[in-house]
Amino acid sequence: MDFELSDEQRMFRDTIRDFVAREVTPVAQEWEHTGRYPAEIVETMKQLGLFGMTVPEEYGGLGLDMVSFAIVFEEISRGWMGVAGILGSHSLACWIIARYGTEEQKSRYLPELATGERRSGIALTEPGAGTDLQGITTRAVRDGDAYVVTGSKTWITNARYADPLPVLVKTDPHAAPAHKGMSVLLVEQGTPGFTVSRDLPKLGYKGPESCEVVLDGARVPAANLLGGVEGRGMQQVLSGLETGRINVAARSLGVAQAAYDAALKYSRDRHAFGQPISDFQAIQIKLADMATSIQASRLLVYWAAACADRGERVDMQTGMAKLFASETAATAALEAMRIHGGHGYSQEFTVERLYRDVPLMVIGEGTSDVMRTVIARALTSGKEKVG
Q: Is this model's pTM higher than 0.70 or not?
C-alpha cells in the first residue's frame, strides 16, 4: 500500500498551495465580509487551467486524476471555501457533459468551459424538492425542435455566470418510476423565459452567488438534451454527484485543516497564567483529536478519489469520505473557536468565517444522514464490504 502522493501530485499541490497563499488567503477575510466577488482570483484560476479539471485533454482540459482534483479543493478551501465553490459546480457540470453529452455538445461547450471563457453550474434543487429529486416539478414539454420549460430552481451556485446551465427536468411527468421520466437540458444564457431572479442571503459560503432561477416557458433547443435521449437525467445526475462528493469532502478537509492551523497558532501565541495555552492538557487534547480526525479524513478522501480513478463504482467510498470529512470540519471549527475563546467570536479572526462555512459542507451534496443511508445501502446490498 502506498499512502503517499506521487511526485507529480506533490508538485501540483505545491503550485495550488502557492497560488492560495499569494492570492486567496490575504484577501479572504475582507472580501468575504464585504461580499466582494473574487473576480481577480477567478482570472488566475483560468490561467492555471482549473476550470478544465474534469474536461478531457482532447477538448483542451486538464483531465485531472481524482486525487489531484481533491487536492485542488482541499488547498483552495484552506484559504477560502467560497472560492472553491466557484469551481465545484462548474466541474460537476463539465464532468456530466464530458461523460454523457453527444459529440456535438462536447465539441460545442467543453473547449470554452475548459478555459473558463464559459462557466457552468447545475440546477437540481427546487423550493419543494431537495434530497428527493424525483419530486421536482419543473417540466419540459416537446414542441417541434424545442422543449418548453416551466418551473423554478433554487440555491444554484454560479447561476449568473453559467452558460450553459444543466437543468434537471421532467420530460415525462407520468413515468413510473418517476426517474424514468427525468432528463437534463443544457440551458444557455439569454434564452427567453430563463431568468436568474435573485441572490439568496446566506450564513456563510460567501463569494459565489447562490440564486433562484425561473424558467417561464423557456424554449430550449432539442439539441440541448444531454446525451440526446430522454429519461436518463437522474442517472446522469447521480453519477455526477459521486464526483461532487469528492469535491465537497475535500473542501471539508480544507476547512478543517484551516481551523486546526488557526487553533494551533493561537494556542502557541496566547498566554495565560504565565505560559502558552498550548501547554495546558485540555488544549492539547483538543488539538490531538482535531489532528487525528483531519488525517483520517484525508485518507478517506484520497482513498475515495483513488477508487474513482480506478473506474470503480464509488457511492459508498465517496459517501464515507463526505460524511466523515464534513462532520470533522464541523467539529474542528467549533473546537478552534473554543480554543480562541472570546476572540473566536470576533470577525477579526479566521475561525468565525470557518464556523459559518462548515454547515454547508454537512448539508451539500447530501446531508450526513443521507450519506449514512447511501453507505448502508451499499453494505446491505452485498456489493460492498468493509475489511
A: yes
